Amino acid sequence: MSYSTQMEAAKKGLLTPQMHDVLRDEIITPETLLERVAKGTIAIPANKNHTNLRGIGVGEGLRTKVNVNLGVSEDACDRELELEKVRLSLEYKTDAIMDLSTFGDTRAFRRDLVDMSPVMLGTVPMYDAVARLGKDIGKMSVDELFEVVRIHCEDGIDFLTIHAGLTKVAAERVDKNPRLTHIVSRGGSILYRWMRETGNENPFYEHYDRLLDICREFDVTLSLGDGLRPGSLKDATDAPQIQELIFLGELTKRAWERDVQVMIEGPGHVPMQEIASNMQIEKKLCHGAPFYVLGPIVTDVAPGYDHITSAIGGAIAASSGADFLCYVTPAEHLRLPDLNDVKEGLIATRIAAHAGDIAKGIPKAMDWDNKMSGFRGKLDWMGMFDTCMDPKKAREYRASSMPQDGEVCTMCGDLCPIKSVKEEPATV
């Protein structure tokens, strides 16, 4: 029995090779996986042209996944450095990589990325439209924009961020509800300018069926972008954000009718007390579609440390139902991240995702922690290093300050409580 997309296969009761990958990685039955992919609450982004892909599931009952953003810009165009970031991200176990390149030979870089990456890959075609067509945004034709989308699909990209919900009506909400930071989404701002300069409706909303045709042809997942996500705590959960989310919910159902998988992108900058409600609103308005969040950042005053502000928000978001976390690095709001920024951002986000999995009861999520604690309880340093999230950093820290007694560490030394209770009491 043939199928065009993962969702169509699931509706027919067929387990695809990518679904078998998910079953090996997750604790879920084949029947449950088929049911949730068919319903849309689990997505398995898997472009037919990404031949070395290892299928990864995002959504209900699965581990919270983590994404790394990278790519060149006009002011920082070092292609080899970005490829090194890819290798580093794979080494430190990212689940996904998004190429956000906006300058140079973006297609050559994208093809190299597809060839070397077994994890799912995403892009924002509107960024590439600027790179390919120039910066005179108002002169981009609808056909040219859709041609860029098709090129990305042909190249093997598994999920596309498309800001299809940023309609004229949604844009009016921004104009009528003043924000501190207006529009902070690059893709959203490009479409906003395009609509203002042409006077036309968002082409990805007006011609949404055309977009679905392309996605269905290549089995590409739509990551419906939040062009009106808040860029400050004050703007969080405001009318423009919610208006766009309502449109995204309607577009989700239309995609599912065509067997095209969907993820929903979310904020952004959100105060901690509003994170759980944001997750609930998305799940309600978008019918349980997997939710992919940037951070969220929980305070606006810590540039240089936004991997921490986002990890706090990401842990709360994951525990409240977010399925996919986009990393934020220490360089956020400041510059393009370097290799160390990428590593720090990825590890911080993996910590947030894992903490969220424990909180929401993902089966056996805490087994990893129990294994680590078992080695700590025996002062088994090699076991601890082999088990921890970043073995290299842990080894370097211990080696930088070795105690006289190699069994303990220099924090407690002779007063190590674990060693003390292991030792026989002195004879009186």
What does this structure look like?
There is one protein chain. Helix 13 (272-285) links the parallel strand 8 (262-266) and strand 9 (291-294). The mean pLDDT is 96. The protein folds into 2 domains: 6-359, Radical SAM ThiC family, central domain (TIM Barrel), CATH 3.20.20.540; 367-422, no CATH class. Helix content is 49%, strand content 9%. With 428 residues, it is of the alpha/beta class. An 8-stranded parallel barrel has the order 3-4-5-6-7-8-9-10, surrounded by 8 helices. The protein has a two-stranded antiparallel ribbon with strand order 1-2. The chain is globular.
Indicate the CATH class of the largest domain. Answer: Alpha Beta
CATH topology of the largest domain: TIM Barrel
Helix percent reads 40-55%
According to DSSP, the number of beta strands is 10
Q: Specify the CATH homologous superfamily of the largest domain.
A: Radical SAM ThiC family, central domain
- Radius of gyration equals 23 Å
Q: What is the helix tally?
A: 19
Element order: H for helix, E for strand: HHHEEEHEHEHHEHHHHEHEHEHEHHHHH
User: Which residues sit in consecutive blocks of at least 5 with pLDDT less than 50?
Assistant: none
* Class by alpha and beta content: alpha/beta
The shape, in one word, is globular
**pLDDT averaged over residues:** 96
Q: How are strands sequenced across the largest beta sheet? A: 3-4-5-6-7-8-9-10
**Could you say what the CATH architecture of the largest domain is?**
Alpha-Beta Barrel
- Ends apart, CA distance between termini: 80 Å
